[in-house]
């Protein structure tokens, strides 16, 4: 299916041959949707439709609120997640699902790094997603853990997948080094509420096997 553009974002749809198959929305840093979907097909993954969104203003669209740069030479975060989420819910999703033969049996949201943070944030601002994949999510983001612990999702999620590289917290960066502790605490918080959730620790740092980790998360959501 041909990609289309909405609000400067490029949207690619990889449709399932099964009507009513679940649909997963994947926000991507550099348009990894084709690689992710292609890799799920030969290995008996349950059928699903993938919608990948690229050409994002990463530090704006994925950030829930303003924050200082995470690296010395990095850009600060300008919280634009609410604006982007409105575009996703009101324009991208209706356009993407207009072509489907049947409404999806469920709708999930997934992402890697800041997009994993955004996927989790999204369920606190909208009720359209019922499953979340937070792969190597930027859960070090200042104030985010506290936000999770003090707010209620718009709908109780069916399941949430968390993963992280085992070297991601091994850094001198005082902000980034909190990522594993925060991820484990957040995952335990959902588990204590009886939500189906898992935390997967993978070998390597943040920049290792991003595609493979993304696929693993989506497959876990599909098999629940």
Automatic annotation (TrEMBL):
The reply on keyword Iron is no
Q: Which Pfam family name is an example for this entry?
A: Esterase
Which organism is this entry from? Answer: Agathobaculum ammoniilyticum
A GO MF annotation of the entry reads: hydrolase activity
> Which InterPro entries does the record match to this protein?
AB_hydrolase_fold, Esterase-like, Mycobacterial_A85_antigen
Give the UniProt keywords, A-Z: Hydrolase
Q: Which domain of life does this protein belong to?
A: Bacteria
What is the protein's name according to its record? Alpha/beta hydrolase-fold protein
